[in-house]
């Protein structure tokens, strides 16, 4: 049997008790939670594996990023973006484009899909009859007739447009 050098023996007599003491102290912080406490975590994850927002803090479930949009005279397509808070993947967002006048008229309607908590609404052929005309875009979750978001489109009035 070989003998250990004195300095190695002295080091082992210090390191071993300190390591044992650390293991005893850290054992107290070991995660031994029963599986039933982990069920709450699985409720946050949807059936498709995506994490969901637990706290439904927003009363308005659909909202446009801007309350009004100025549309340049030469722009034919307007892309509107919005948030669909708390909607599941694939939720449809219904929209209407209404001309604001004495007798409001629905000019266009359809639906877009909520993807990743947001939606994009491309409106083609946006045309204004005058500088004072306004178009209101309303959007709501499919099946929800009470909570809808709105944004107003108005033309960027130039001298050319004002003379129309």
Structure description:
The chain has helices at residues 6-27, 39-44, 159-162; strands at residues 62-64, 68-71, 78-84, 92-100, 105-113, 118-123, 134-141, 149-155. With 164 residues, it is an alpha+beta fold. The chain folds into two domains: 6-44; 62-162, Immunoglobulin-like, CATH 2.60.40.2030. It is rod-shaped and about 100 Å long. The mean pLDDT is 78.
CATH architecture of the largest domain: Sandwich
Order of helices and strands: HHEEEEEEEEH
- By secondary-structure content and strand pairing, the structural class works out as alpha+beta
Average pLDDT rating: 78
Distance between the termini: 107 Å
In terms of DSSP E residues, the strand content is 25-35%
Shape: rod-shaped
Q: How many strands in all?
A: 8
Give a brief rundown of this model:
This protein has helices at residues 6-27, 39-44, 159-162; strands at 62-64, 68-71, 78-84, 92-100, 105-113, 118-123, 134-141, 149-155.
């Amino acid at each position: 049997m070989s003998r250990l050098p004195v300095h190695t023996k002295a080091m082992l007599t210090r390191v071993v008790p300190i390591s044992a003491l650390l293991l005893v102290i850290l054992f107290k912080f070991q995660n031994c939670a029963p599986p039933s406490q982990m069920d709450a975590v699985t409720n946050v994850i949807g059936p498709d594996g995506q994490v969901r927002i637990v706290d439904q803090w927003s009363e308005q479930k659909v909202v446009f990023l801007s309350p009004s949009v100025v549309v340049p005279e030469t722009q034919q397509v307007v892309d509107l973006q919005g948030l669909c808070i708390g909607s599941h993947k694939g939720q449809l967002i219904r929209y209407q484009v209404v001309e604001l006048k004495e007798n409001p008229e629905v000019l266009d309607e359809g639906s877009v899909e909520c993807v990743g908590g947001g939606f994009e609404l491309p409106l083609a052929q946006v045309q204004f009859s005058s500088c004072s005309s306004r178009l209101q875009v309303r959007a709501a979750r499919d099946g929800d007739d009470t909570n809808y978001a709105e944004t107003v489109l108005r033309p960027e009035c130039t001298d050319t447009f004002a003379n129309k």
